[in-house]
């Protein structure tokens, strides 16, 4: 039996370069050797978008197109729409009783995001508990491995705790997952913020047309002290170099550029020109495949419907085991 992978994305916008290096690349690489479930987490997206359900709805197709464009193969990988698997919501309710509010408030990613979103005292309850619903996502499919960016490590940790606590209180029926963090664990934003994110408006999308990509790169944050071409520049924390590290296959050219930049004499314009070329080489085929798939919306819906049905079956098996472990199998048949 193949081991299981689960990952997902919030349909809050199309996917970006950060998703690619943080998770998509590994999913494509591993989809043949693992049973792969990919969750479009619309319920989780609603935890901070309750007033914009149309945004969540519209982005389901965008995210699905991005998957297909980067090479997710719906014949081997199962794409599931979260809200159409109510078993996940039910698991969430059971898990919530074995997690404390204090533990949730300590989750570093949730803490950072609450600050970024400026909730103040008005944190939606669903947002605070989203790590628990993520634990339900992961365990519903019995995932052994979760390929995620670094920001998600606290979620996997919390999931492992829930699995262990569930085993201690009831029975060991859940699979304890492990995170798979890639070589580039966190891609910074074009504004220099430490994470490229849909919600922060600092992303280069996989579907951005060439002129937008060029404009975004030209406007990218670099070393603010590197004012004149001859000034020595800093490479660390300079997102232009982080992107070259992630996407430029010619590592010799990149290290030569870094050396030159540090010494002084290499202008930001030149480095950015290189980055635009590198990104175009990467994005052009993705864009082309995306527009091919976009021609047939009915086929996308068929893929989503079929994947979701298969996902429900898997989640239903876990839920039955959970209910039995909790002695909630009242009718016993
Ligand atoms: P939102 O702002 O709505 O939360 P997001 O851009 O953070 O969106 P998610 O859908 O929350 O994207 O993340 C999906 C997956 O992509 C997660 O595994 C996450 O770790 C990964 N990921 C997202 N952004 C980055 C990034 N900048 N670098 C590395 N991985 C990332
Ligand atoms: Mg996120």
Low-confidence stretches: none
CATH class of the largest domain: Alpha Beta
CATH architectural arrangement of the largest domain: 3-Layer(aba) Sandwich
Residue fraction in strands: 5-15%
Cofactors, ions and other ligands in the entry = adenosine-5'-triphosphate, magnesium ion
Outline of the structure:
The protein is mainly alpha-helical.
Attribute tags:
two-stranded parallel ribbon, binds adenosine-5'-triphosphate, 333 residues, Rossmann fold, Tyrosyl-Transfer RNA Synthetase
Characterise this structure.
By secondary structure, the protein is mainly alpha-helical. It folds into two domains: 4-187 and 297-325, HUPs (Rossmann fold); 210-291, Orthogonal Bundle (Tyrosyl-Transfer RNA Synthetase), CATH 1.10.240.10. It has 14 helices and five strands. α8 crosses α9, α10 packs antiparallel against α13 and α11 (239-247) crosses α13. The model has no long low-confidence stretch (mean pLDDT 97). It binds adenosine-5'-triphosphate (ATP) and magnesium ion. Adenosine-5'-triphosphate binds at residues 7, 9-10, 12, 18-19, 21-23, 148-149, 151-152, 186-187, 195-199.
Q: Topology of this protein?
A:
Blueprint: E1 4-9, H1 17-30, E2 35-40, H2 42-46, H3 53-70, E3 77-81, H4 86-96, H5 101-106, H6 108-117, H7 125-128, H8 130-140, E4 145-147, H9 153-169, E5 178-180, H10 210-218, H11 239-247, H12 251-263, H13 268-294, H14 297-325
Parallel strand pairs: 1-2, 2-3, 4-5
Helix pairs in contact: 3-13, 4-8, 4-14, 8-9, 10-13, 11-13
The structure holds adenosine-5'-triphosphate and magnesium ion.
